[in-house]
Amino acid sequence: MIGGGSWGCAFALLLRERGHAVTLACRDPEQARELAETGRNPRYLTFADLSGIAATTVAEAPVETAELVVLAVPSRAFGGVAGALPGAAPVLSLTKGLDPATGERLSTLVRGLVRGRAVAVLSGPNFAEEIARGLPAAAVIATEDGFLAGQLQHALNSPLFRAYVNPDLVGVELCGAAKNVIALAAGAVDGLALGDNAKAALITRGLAEMARLGEACGARPETFSGLAGMGDLIATCWSSHGRNRRAGELIALGATAEEAIAAIGQVVEGLTTAPVLRDLAHRVGVELPITEGVCRVLEGESLGALAASLMGRRPTEE
Amino acid sequence: MIGGGSWGCAFALLLRERGHAVTLACRDPEQARELAETGRNPRYLTFADLSGIAATTVAEAPVETAELVVLAVPSRAFGGVAGALPGAAPVLSLTKGLDPATGERLSTLVRGLVRGRAVAVLSGPNFAEEIARGLPAAAVIATEDGFLAGQLQHALNSPLFRAYVNPDLVGVELCGAAKNVIALAAGAVDGLALGDNAKAALITRGLAEMARLGEACGARPETFSGLAGMGDLIATCWSSHGRNRRAGELIALGATAEEAIAAIGQVVEGLTTAPVLRDLAHRVGVELPITEGVCRVLEGESLGALAASLMGRRPTEE
């Protein structure tokens, strides 16, 4: 497991519960050392007992001999880490975003470097805190490799963590990236105190916009109605755990993006992803009004003026 | 406007804001009298100033001369009220449910009695409290009558209330009925403290189950991804305003259905609708595992045992 953030730690716990031998490789050597010494992550999920999980640095991680490499690093770091992986073990990505440098889906960065390396993505409504506390959840494993899909489903599924498979890698990755951007907008609805009616309408239009982009990129429409689409979107937009939702709320209340990140103390993927997603939409010729609005607010446009212009549009057929 | 509950009052306010002359007909004569005297509803939305809206009893309401009759009565009362309407004015139904006596969609009760009476249904994420406070919302007007659709859209649309039209009356009515049943289950997830991951997964599977029933009944799949489907479902399941969600939570915490209704103090449509929806599903040959589970719990089965059996099922493709 590469990435010692909250989702990396929680997923390491899931793997340990299923009887797998896990090494957690932290990008921060100090964090790796503390984790190895105390059996606890000093920064994330500090309540969780990680004993039985080996901890090391990324440089020293036994990647070459691993049966599976799980990546749970921020999208900004994904390309660098994925590009330096030795060995040919299959990769499972837990990261939700696009490559900021190229706009590519993250799974393509893994594949480009080792020919024939199998790659899968796991996505769904999976707040790390809840999973680390042993609460039930469900997720989708997306891969074009049917054999890997079956292996991963067998390795991960348990009464507390239901793992479904879906061959639509493109759709699942786009869902994971786009939902964080919609969550920024949903958080802004909270920050402006516009109410749950407006928030539900925004999320619904947000999923429609995600599905439109997906269709243009060759994804399956059903993926957007599934756990990685609607499921993850509504959790991200509505739960108090949602960091992207919270960041949008703080920004609507007057914080800068940097202040929001500092207040949350963890990566806010939607802020990285929003402009990358907009560029992708322009390339494939799809309009994403909510994503566009998020980008414009991040670039300094007044949120109040934007909201008014959206509500003033002439309504049509749904 | 027939029905002086919270949605009836809030919708009367919307109509007043758009400049329409509104008479609010209460089923409770005492409530009608107080409303006429004080300009306030003594029981629901007590903060709202209803001055300018005439108040009367259902018996004395000027239904025959109205340009539009809006029905916002509980589903249990709908057939009785709709069956006694004089005149031939078009009817707009705000009620979300099925006819408990026959399992029919409510709009069919209006049509059966006056040949040629035009009927429309309004649905979407529309908490009355928020609308009465002037917060923005969006809704779908569903009717097979294109002329009425245009008239209603023109009469209702405003910068604060966006009215979309959708010809799929069957789908919109099934959404409005079924979402309250899913919300009971979502509330039970809250009551059992299973977390937001589990809740998001349940709501996602809930919408899939609603769409399956809709397909079997001739509805359009897109309706279930729209404001009346996903939009209303997520608001009902996640907002603190949601009565059905709250009822499910109270029942999971040990209350009987009657105790939950008493605590909430308003109609809880999901409790009426659940068995009616199950019967409909049996008639059209569709499996609704969540609705079935809700019915079994309402019939006395242990919620814990049911949750465990659902999580223990073998996962498949999504």
Concise structural overview:
2 copies of one chain form a homodimer. Chain A has 318 residues and is α/β, with parallel strands linked by helices.
| Oligomeric state of shown chains | homodimer
Mean pLDDT of chain A: 94
- Unreliable stretches covering 5 or more consecutive residues of chain A: none
Question: Which structural category do the helix and sheet elements of chain A fall into?
Answer: alpha/beta
Query: What would you call the shape of chain A?
Result: globular
Could you tell me which chain pair has the largest interface and how many residues each side has? A-B, 55 and 55 residues
Using DSSP, what is the number of strands of chain A?
7
Q: Can you write the helix and strand succession of chain A as a string?
A: HEHEEHEHEHEHEHHHHHHHHH
Range of strand content of chain A: 5-15%
The end-to-end span of chain A amounts to: 44 Å
Provide the helix percentage of chain A.
40-55%
Lateral arrangement of strands in the main beta sheet of chain A: 3-4-5-6-7
The number of helical segments of chain A is 15
Q: Whole-number radius of gyration of chain A? A: 19 Å
Q: How many strands, what sense, and barrel or not for the largest sheet of chain A?
A: 5 strands, mixed
